């Protein structure tokens, strides 16, 4: 059995969550997210975000959360500004377009876009002679951490926030890997800062210790009006909504969410150090749980009987770029084994 | 704490499933439904359906399953024929229309439609002078058991199947409560019969002992081409697909699925007998886990401190129609308490 | 060559329009409805409606106008209340559903719905335990004159207006046959009254003397924000927008629109009188340009070599219900011939 | 009054069309494109394309034709490959996305894409580990002539055709300016060649002498199944379909379509020669009716009191790139005036 480092969703969930599910199993609860566990989880999230009036909703997965939030905000003729490498732009089978909206994709550096690019994009639209012939920018989507493990600094986020305010564009932060971003020593962002700078974001559960589930936080609660209709229509309203409540209740208790995230990041830092020491080129400098390095194929051949990575590209015939992921569930002994194997090459 | 009989999703899941989740928790698996548990669950389902070539996919919930299957089959100008009381027609916030399709709703008796009605609907469409001005019937949707707990007989299903074949319409059976139908003593349908008569149907998990999840079975596998794209686009592809695999693997082992269903139906039969003895009018004669009776409000007032039902209507100022549901998880002692309370009125 | 009474769009257009098109043909104009003819037509329409601040847009046809207006107003989870016989409910190939919205169809009497029905529909939605599971009523659509040639009285319209205001629902009036309604001696509605009672309506051109085109009037101009984007996206923005401007400029000059409409209604009244004298049952009592009568098949057999009607139904084996239409272009001598033929039977 | 060279739709239509409309005006015809004029126009188009079995449909405008054809062909999870400068990618307010589909935009040189790019795009999709996470390429869209006036050579078209066949992708050619392409001395394409190489294309009327209208030709008629439903649903089915029939009947008679196109191209060639003589840099080398040149602002200032061009960009503070268009209706004396003015600078 290979040890899997190819993604951050190959284990089940934090044992605390399994316990909570077992303990509450025969409780009878009303459905659709209106049970006491969901109530409690919402309260804990608002507290953690220092956003007492935020409107919190639970969805099953990331693509669903992205599609539901975006289509709930945009008017039919509007599009969403995003990095060309953003998850909604490339890895959701056109779910945003399926909802009727164009992704206005901007060139990205290490998975990130800038306030300047957003400003240029909006101004170019309105400078058109006949702006109604092109898709109107209606909101901005960024990921934190990004699909390449990188982070926006507080200053970058504030600039993006400001340009969004200037143009009346809601800012949406995809937080499928939010914890892995916040837990990085390179991060200067916190949940309360995020709740101040973003109109809506989500606290990713699926990749961060839950069985599944994302907690969508509408810091700007005016955008959340009738959002439950959108969830239901989009097929995201779990009959046993309690499952999401119980999971986030658990994750938000005793700082479990951040502890799990920190573990993943620490394991990644250990691996990264060895990769850098080995002199392998780092394709994207990532301070979170995803690492992107280019290795000689002959070195990979030595690792592949025991370890599974994601192939990210083939820069030439003798090298391969791989993604190496840790997660909340990465066993330290498995990290040790990988480090040892790397050193032995 | 009231005892809840208002729906069939107010408990967690069968303990066997919790065990299986705990046991496999730290296994590492590839994502998106391509892991060995999903493989195994698919194999077990094909066996149970005696449909070795069926294409089986797992989705998170019923609305999602309905919307994804229907929009994967229809051409843009086609609609789906359904009972006006069908779940897709009334209780999915227009998810089918959101996908671009009209629900061609037919008057229903006790939640059911007939082959004759389908035939008439299709013929009326093509008899139009300019059929392209009206929505083309593209498939047929029925529920088994229906939203009112009723069942199609084998003969009725065969007639519907035949008229669908005649008009080239795929037949889709919503099986959110499939087990509760199959387990009824009034049923003359089996999984293999269903796999022969329906083009696609699903084995409902959410309401029948799973935490969540529906197993969509394409008996007519030609309809399943590229269905994984549809699942992903519709936000229904779980990263940790194993969760669905493990649950259905468990449900399909040792006949657990049917045992759970039979329990619910038996508990319902016990309650129904008392309701009939009390002389309360039965609004819809249901042989499955949902009961629909009209009670005097003064009687309800005696029950409501201890029991929760769904309100289904107000026939007059002194009476209320309620839905009383049992489930896989109904505790026999709770059924006893309800029966006792009814007798005491 | 049969004389055609089967619809109101079988001739070309009013000669005044052809002349105007010829006269302006080699003028050079900017595109997309921003030329002086469109400007002028908009001004004339606002004047005729005594609605100086109305926002007027030109679209090519009725289905397009309906779909574009409705999808511009509704949120994704909302539906449009309409008569079950309304054009959007039955004769537009599901264009509204294609745009993502359910038509909430109400039983109609002679093509009309009532304020009471609308009120009941809205209240039933919010009375649901979990209204987010059903489509939220988002606007109301009625036709004037209706698909059956009938008219709402001023009192009925005011009641509908009031209930719409009460529930915050925009009221949209399909005016594909608006002139034929306004021109009826049975009408107590005028353009200014309509502009006061409806949020948005259109002045139909296609069936009323134009080559094609509908003038959408947003009396409630706040609903028109960015409507040009919707037109363009919906494929309704004519490059040579002047064509619509010139046509409506002409129709709104010297009362041409109403004169053409009155002609059609007068011809219909002449035919109707004979049909009533003959004792044929009138299926729907219509005071406008569409007549619905049931004739014995043996009588129809005498008419059909010379005249074309629309078949509307077969009440029994010996009778047929037909629609007989007049239009702005019906030649009086053709009406005479039909009347004579009827009398001779 | 400025002389307008800013687009190719600022005049009305060819006088022959106005005459035909006038002559047929009081004819009574059945609606929706099933009249004898449409029949005749279809026959003439099939003849001109030497494609006796092609299925021809008439639509009102280009955006509508593009959106209707594309959404009729694609499955929900598929996208359309196009140049990033293609009309559907930039100037249709996201009409394709509104229909649910992503435009898979490829970098373009002078408005064109290559067979190699298409091949790479398709292969990259299927090389994905989990192709169902990205939009499946479902068809290819190119424009002839392109949005920059350029042309594909026969060899280029054949290569594109071949790669489309290899990957099972229908090839759709946007012919909004088809005549201006075919009429160029630089073109080695003909209607019959196009009908052999494309699965579906359209013969643009709006920009080429008609009042409005595009004739969609399904050379691969299997793709046209039920296309009338799509037209109606998309709001493109003109009640007075005759208007389109009469126009194309006229254009396809006595070679009028090509004569009008040739006139426009000839006028453009005369202007281009002078622009090249003046030494102005040509931004895109176009052999058709659209010219793209960069002029010093001081020169433009001399022209702008008398002539209207489209602004295409501002390469620096002292220069502007303009589009100069001729059309079927460009008066030779206006071309003379522009040439004279250019020479005088």
Written account of the structure:
Four copies of one chain form a homotetramer. The first copy, chain A, folds into two domains: about 5-10 and about 255-345, Alpha-Beta Complex (Aspartate Aminotransferase, domain 1), CATH 3.90.1150.10; about 15-255, Type I PLP-dependent aspartate aminotransferase-like (Major domain) (Aspartate Aminotransferase, domain 2), CATH 3.40.640.10. Chain A has 14 helices and 13 strands. The first copy, chain A, has helices at about 15-25, 35-50, 60-75, 85-90, 95-100, 115-125, 155-165, 180, 190-195, 225-235, 240-250, 255-275, 295-305, 330-345; strands spanning about 5, 55-60, 80-85, 105, 135-145, 170-175, 200-205, 215-220, 280-285, 290-295, 305-310, 310-315, 320-325. In chain A, the strands form three sheets. Chain A has a seven-stranded mixed sheet, sandwiched between helices. A four-stranded antiparallel sheet of chain A has the order 9-10-13-12. A two-stranded parallel sheet of chain A has the order 1-11. In chain A, a hairpin with a 5-residue loop joins strand 9 and strand 10. The first copy, chain A, is globular, with a radius of gyration of 20 Å. The two termini of chain A are about 20 Å apart. The model of chain A has no long low-confidence stretch (mean pLDDT about 95).
